[in-house]
């Protein structure tokens, strides 16, 4: 059984390894007629790209995307769109000492148990580098949803380790490398990250993603609910350990009168539901939270085992993100876009197809 | 597009409405040779059944399951297993006044926007009654996994509204109607629920589900990860607003050295990962948490609108669960069983098929 | 892996065994708003029903369908439609002597090799009885396509063993038990069948199915072409050994100028393509031919083996169709309806959804 | 809805247009551990390649495949295998005059009706050039099946227009550009083709494909039968108008005693079934026949219409295959390999996984 395809109507098939020749995605199901250029996709890839600030991995990848199919005279034709990103800065030697060892918190051990072999170069397929094709595919979904339905998808970081980040404005989000919605907190975040790097440590984070303009009526009653598909996509992202919608885990202590959003002739006035009721969109903003674990790659020596099952100590050198959460915002946006596009196509009268 | 099927290799298709003639499921993909009787399934259905204590809905449903296919001489044949549960105690008149009105926090509004019509009797398809076929299907998965792989799936309530429930023992879980793992807390839970019923209110809860004995190697690297599929199944359950694995949202404030579970020659000693690394099972216990919202059906008058968009006030009478979380434990166990069985079948050498 | 579901957007999941408690289907993806009663479905089931003439199996089955879900106040709601048909006249003893033996031309041997066990009563799941749920599901697709798109699906027998049946009129088709489009040939067909029964033999047949009114534009370019999905559905029908579209195998000797249907401002004037070009409907009638093998159940003694691999002789008594082709017409119509409905739903602007 | 993926367990997603930058496929589900190089795939691509004799299109394409992912140190890792073939000899001007016109027998008209736009360069996605990624993917399936199960898949041409080609030997098949199993007929075939080219005409053909060594037990009882999936794959190939298994359309005139293959302790002695009984492989050779229509691209002037619906005359110049059947043999082999691999993976105990 495979498993590398996301979506049923808008299908994204992801391929590639961190240090193989290339990574990419084939998108099957994009409707014809969308104006689409490599620049449209590049814009989102650049938001995710490594090496853009001192707080993320220093691997230098241009992440230049090439569209191989599905476009004619600047517009989608309705046939599969193949996206190719060549790997360029692949220093495999950085990982050479890890061939035989399982890094704690990494997928090394589980890949080996599943496949009996693995590509150890840069984590192979388990590398966060494989989120680039997802971002590229999401860029297409995002553009379609914006132009044909008026959906706006944005995200931000709401917490970095112990530092909660209050929401001040969407404008601030793109003005700092953390996707923090409050510029005043940024110096504190930078100081925290500088300290962390010195320690050779990593840290978790919390990301919020919001989709506005989704019409009521998207989703299915049972199993393939809109919120279920969002949870699937988000929990499928490297390092995510928790997903919630609307009030999320706060609903545990809420009473019914507090949680249930009242309806008024001019719409809802609260959004505890996070835009989904009974698995179907309500027309309110869809609000999603993600818990992102600290990167497993740390310089600290850790106890582990090798393939023979013997005790060893592991230290991960190479170039890594001390907080994968920092680059997670554009990826989470892309995933939400893909899920929404997938459901949009099942409700074509609302989707403009 | 449909959406009422869970799983790819072990496929559960769910049908029915709360007050229609029957509810049920067709399970496609169960391997041949499993000893299976209606009693096996009934046992799990009875754990979920309404009307068993004063803290849950007083609707009386025997929930008697009939196996229509897929069994010959007491064993599965490998062909689809069709399970039928007749609805008996369907007092549709209880809901008559809600035909034209949307209950806040319910799927009434979103179903109407999606389908342009809906079966209002007892919430129709959005009723929690439709979790019964899921539980029945899960009973089959649970039995297979226990007998062929040695997987043990159990759950409990860890919080009811403001009351945290410490874990004392698995034995206690089945000895009280809350699935609480500490009998000492039960009187406090009962008092809380009695008060709540008087108020005509409802409350949220937190459920934990654990699968022990899952071999390392189940799951797929990208998108159809084991944790992603678990999140999909759980978030697809009525009233769930949050799902987490292992450390869950606590990982936000964890450092890498704290979160990453070290490997030792005799196995892991911590389980921050919750049994899944890089989307693939690690051989540790798989630990899942669910946040369950308070029931939307409350006696309190709430502002809402009718189909004409005019302001109305709604009060839900009928028979309801003031805390759907109370009956959620066996359902969450069933969902985890279905997802694990689905992945088991993709790794047949480990699954005994 | 499962396999008992037909369609991607209009999904029919089939369950049951010939002599188990019941057979049926769950249809997921039927749009809301279709007027639908048990009578609508019964009409098509009665066309397929056994025991209606001396030329088909004398098994007496009322084949009474019950709708268990998906309907409210006489209309589909958009949720799964569950259809139940109880088995009543199940004389299992007729097959008792075959428990250990593989009947030549039957699926006995292959089921045993695949599943390691099998339900031998009446062929279990391999019985042609399992086409009843397909016909029931097809009745829904047929009704939708007729009412919402104006598609008309009809079929007839064009050859019975050595006897070619010329096409005279659609009216004649429903006036004889063979679905022959020429009443003058019927006496010849009856005499042939009477002779065949005396011999204890069976015979093949050829069926034609035609869908008129399908708009241009249904189908996908590669792999899931409309003709590919038709071939899949038809070859999935018991006893079918060949499927063709339009000119079919005659195209082997055709030249390009003869085969390619010229386009004129007022439409096509020939239909060698059978209504499909490049996998996509052209707006012409879709024409499909099926080759149906002679029933494997014959009274003649045949050499075979038992489960121990020893030589035995087998004679099939019980009640059988000496020509399964006779009852194949309504089934083939149902399959074409399901495939067309499945593609219709992917082109909603044309489908009225 | 998409549609460009073949298979459920071994999934081949095909992308590209005849004159776009590249064509290719992503294969998801190939088990780990298979030795695989670009040479292995190139061998099959070269068998299909255009420009290899005067009887096929003179387009010169090296069809050089590049493996982008899924391989580490010469072996598959179990992750998706991405295959890239650059288009090099794309003379788009050859087709310029056809931008506005629909060529009879081509998909021009139906694509335009479906997508509202199309890539007219070389037929865009409807070009037979898109069979190259299928052949490349099939090469992997073929190699796996040969090495792990001992399955041998071969094909040949059995008829070219009016000329029937008797089967003499497998050895002869690869010694002539027609894949004819009788070298003595080759001069006649060459003379026929030379004459045809002078006329500016095209012709149909019949292809046989045979898989030996398939164990009994592959396939599913209903709908996703092995023969149904074979029919789906084959009818999904450009220009195929008919597919049959075993006796095929000859079964129409067969009696039961003639068609049903008797079983003996040392196996079957006839193979009317073509290796499939009740949708499941019987252990005999799987034998498939295809009817391939004459190429639609002919030099003869044909009546047609343009996008405005006005009458025009069309003549197809460019470089074309006067008999697409000539290059169809390796493609049909690839499709059969993909379908068998897909079913193999659902029966892992027999598949060596």
From TrEMBL, chains A, B, C, D:
EC number of the protein: 4.2.3.5
Sites where the protein binds NADP(+): 48, 54
Recorded GO MF terms: chorismate synthase activity
Keyword field: Amino-acid biosynthesis, Aromatic amino acid biosynthesis, FAD, Flavoprotein, FMN, Lyase, NADP
InterPro entries: Chorismate_synth, Chorismate_synth_AroC_sf, Chorismate_synthase_CS
UniProt enzyme class: lyase
Statement: the UniProt record of this protein carries the keyword Hydrolase: no
Pathway the protein contributes to: Metabolic intermediate biosynthesis; chorismate biosynthesis; chorismate from D-erythrose 4-phosphate and phosphoenolpyruvate: step 7/7
Cofactor: binding details: Reduced FMN (FMNH(2)).
Cofactor(s) required, per the database record: FMNH2
Residues that, per the record, bind FMN: 125-127, 238-239, 278, 293-297, 319
Catalytic activity annotation: 5-O-(1-carboxyvinyl)-3-phosphoshikimate = chorismate + phosphate
TM helices/strands, residue ranges: none
Assembly description: Homotetramer.
HAMAP family attached to this UniProt entry: Chorismate_synth (MF_00300)
Stated family: Belongs to the chorismate synthase family.
Protein role: This reaction introduces a second double bond into the aromatic ring system.
Protein name per UniProt: Chorismate synthase
Organism of origin: Alcaligenes ammonioxydans
């Amino acid at each position: 059984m495979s498993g590398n395809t996301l979506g049923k109507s808008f299908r994204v098939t992801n391929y590639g390894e961190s240090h193989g020749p290339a990574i990419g995605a084939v998108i099957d199901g994009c409707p014809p007629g969308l104006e689409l250029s490599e620049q449209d996709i590049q814009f989102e890839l650049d938001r995710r790209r490594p090496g853009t600030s001192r707080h993320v991995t220093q691997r230098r990848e241009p992440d230049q995307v090439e569209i191989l199919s599905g476009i004619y005279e600047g517009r989608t034709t309705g046939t599969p769109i193949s996206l190719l990103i060549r790997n360029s800065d692949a220093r495999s030697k950085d990982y050479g000492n890890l061939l035989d060892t399982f890094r704690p918190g990494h997928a090394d051990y589980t890949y080996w148990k599943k496949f009996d072999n693995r590509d150890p170069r840069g984590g192979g397929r388990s590398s966060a580098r494989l989120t680039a094709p997802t971002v590229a595919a999401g860029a297409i979904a995002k553009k379609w949803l914006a132009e044909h339905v008026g959906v706006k998808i944005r995200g931000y970081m709401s917490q970095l380790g112990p530092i909660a980040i209050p929401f001040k404005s969407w404008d601030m989000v793109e003005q700092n490398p953390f996707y923090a919605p409050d510029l005043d907190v940024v110096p504190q975040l930078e100081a925290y990250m500088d300290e962390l790097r010195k320690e050779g440590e990593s840290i978790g984070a919390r990301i919020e993603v919001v989709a506005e303009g989704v019409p009521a009526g998207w989703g299915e009653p049972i199993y393939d609910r809109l919120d279920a598909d969002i949870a699937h996509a988000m929990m499928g992202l490297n390092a995510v350990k928790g997903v919630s919608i609307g009030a999320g885990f706060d609903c545990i202590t809420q009473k019914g009168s507090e949680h249930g959003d009242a309806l008024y002739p001019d719409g809802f006035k609260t959004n505890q539901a996070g835009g989904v009721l009974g698995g179907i969109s309500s027309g309110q903003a869809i609000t999603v939270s993600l818990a992102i674990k600290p990167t497993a790659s740390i310089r600290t020596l850790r106890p582990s085992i090798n393939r023979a099952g013997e005790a060893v100590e592991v230290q991960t050198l190479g170039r890594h993100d001390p907080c994968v959460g920092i680059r997670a915002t554009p990826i989470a946006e892309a995933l939400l876009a893909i899920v929404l596009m997938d459901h949009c196509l099942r409700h074509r009268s609302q989707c403009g197809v």
